[in-house]
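Long-time lurker. I teach an intro course on protein structure, and each term I like to show students one example going from raw sequence to a predicted 3D structure in token notation. This year I'd like something fresh instead of my usual example. Would anyone be willing to generate the tokens for the chain below so I can use it in lecture? Attribution to the forum is fine with me.
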Amino acid sequence: MRRMRDENKYYDERQLRIRGRIYLHAFVILIVLFLANALLAGFGVVWMDDALWQTLLLIDFSLTACFIEMIVRDVYIGRDGQGRAAPYIMPLVFILQVLAGGTRERLTEGGKLTDLGARIIIVILCLILFATLVIKKLRDRRNAGEE
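-- Reply from a regular --
Happy to contribute to a lecture. Here you go:
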């Protein structure tokens, strides 16, 4: 608990409120995704056999939406600068994971997503997050240069 308080000292009250709302949005998105998944399963639509990958994908969709909103609203990285390298390294790690997993496997089999397909979707979500961060940084630099 003490560690959480130490991490929060780098954010002002406005940023903490914004982050709280963003976490709420991510939680609501996650609930909607799980309900939609349960509804699809109730109608007999199975889009992936592996329940673990299915759950990881739904969580990753929610987290990606959360992180993108944090980046856009300037509350993603604290004032101390910790965690600046992670968004740049993360896509590379996932791309290496896909390459290490082999490319002979198909993305879909029988209309269902395979493990490789799930890993590729995670890579795409990481790349979207990376692109959002880079675009935001470039826009901030351009705006700072105009002032």
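Some talking points for your students: Helices lie at 2-8, 13-42, 51-72, 86-100, 115-146. Residues 115-146 form the longest helix (32 residues).
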